[in-house]
Here is the input.
Amino acid sequence: MTEQKKDEVQKPKKKRKILPALLLISLAVNLLLGAALNYKWNDDSEYEALFRSEITFAIQRFEECAEQMDESNYTVGVAHLYTACTMVENFSEKNMMYQYSSEFDSLWNLAAAYPDEFMNHVNKLIPVLKDIKKDRNFNDSDAMIALQEFNSLVRVNVVK
Here is the structure.
């Protein structure tokens, strides 16, 4: 019986060693998964790529409309502009584009609400959108100022 008691006493010791090891392994796995998810959630590259593609499509449509006005092309261009605005709102708060997201919203609102006035000045907008698209770091303050100026130009002419 003494041998059985020794075996019974040793078994709980093994369990005591396994539980802390499992706890440490679980903690390490949770930390790694948490870090990976945090990186994924804070990664703007997907939104930035979609933003660039939507701006490219909007530029193409507005260029076609500048040559010959076509309501369907204009509508598609405005839709791409809206999608680009949505992508900007998903950027990090540190990103300059995010800080100017209200200007993108204004641009879309003006395009949707005042198509005639918007198209009167679209030749001034296309180079601005191209500059915004070229900016790989999303920190071109000159492009953002030009966007503000375009919005102001359209707003002033709408009010007249």
User: Anything to note?
Assistant: The two ends are 103 Å apart (CA to CA). The helical segments are 2-41, 45-67, 71-89, 96-99, 101-113, 115-120, 122-134, 141-159.
